[in-house]
Design brief:
Number of domains: 2
Pfam family, one: CHDCT2
Strand content: under 5%
Structural class: mainly alpha
Radius of gyration: 23 Å
Domain CHD C-terminal: 20-165
Protein name: CHD3 protein
InterPro entries: CHD_C2
Largest sheet: none
Helix content: over 70%
Order of helices and strands: HHHHHHHHH
Length: 194
């Protein structure tokens, strides 16, 4: 989710030429650096520190609104929560790799993941067909119908996989238990230097 968000934001910032005015990964970096220096959820201190002025840039156009500070602080809190979740997941993945944990290929979640990859590949490789079909290309129209039928079958299989997933997932111990770490210890490890 975060990488997709970064790509979209960065693309918008670059194409508009507003690298400071549109929030993207550079602002996230400075937000995290501000939290390291000033502390958890100390939004006002971070915003008032001139060294972190770049995080104020995207909000300059909103300064005239009555609830400006509240809106800005809520955005910073939501954005930090997203970054924090990404850091926790990154630490969980690192810990799983350290413990040499692997995903069971026969697990229903893996089947769902495989089908999703097939849907994505099929859709991307045949996306040009809709334009050609609309332009009156009869062979393209025939191929498009076959591709749509394949997609429908894959989506039907995925729907069946999803209905079996809750029962399977309920039997899996939480990630913190599998990593032998609490979320608090993960966060404290991330916060400690070195």
């Amino acid at each position: 989710e975060l990488h997709t968000l970064w790509q979209n934001e960065e693309r918008a910032a670059i194409s508009s030429g507003k690298l400071n005015e549109i929030w993207h990964r550079r602002h996230d970096y400075w937000l995290l650096a501000g939290i390291v220096l000033h502390g958890y959820a100390r939004w006002t201190d971070i915003q008032n520190d001139g060294a972190f002025g770049v995080i104020n840039e995207p909000f300059k156009g909103e300064a005239s609104k009555g609830n400006f500070l509240e809106m800005k602080n809520k955005f910073l809190a939501r954005r930090f929560k997203l970054l924090e979740q990404a850091l926790v997941i990154e630490e969980q993945l690192r810990r799983a790799a350290y413990l040499n944990m692997t995903q069971d290929p026969s697990h229903p979640a893996m089947a769902l993941n495989t089908r999703f990859a097939e849907v994505e590949c099929l859709a991307e490789s045949h996306q040009h067909l809709s334009k050609e079909s609309l332009a009156g290309n009869k062979p393209a129209n025939a191929v498009l119908h076959k591709v749509l039928n394949q997609l429908e079958e894959l989506l039907s299989d995925m729907k069946a996989d999803v209905t079996r997933l809750p029962a399977t997932l309920s039997r899996i111990p939480p990630i913190a238990a599998r990593l032998q770490m609490s979320e608090r210890s993960i966060l404290s490890r991330l916060a400690s230097k070195g």
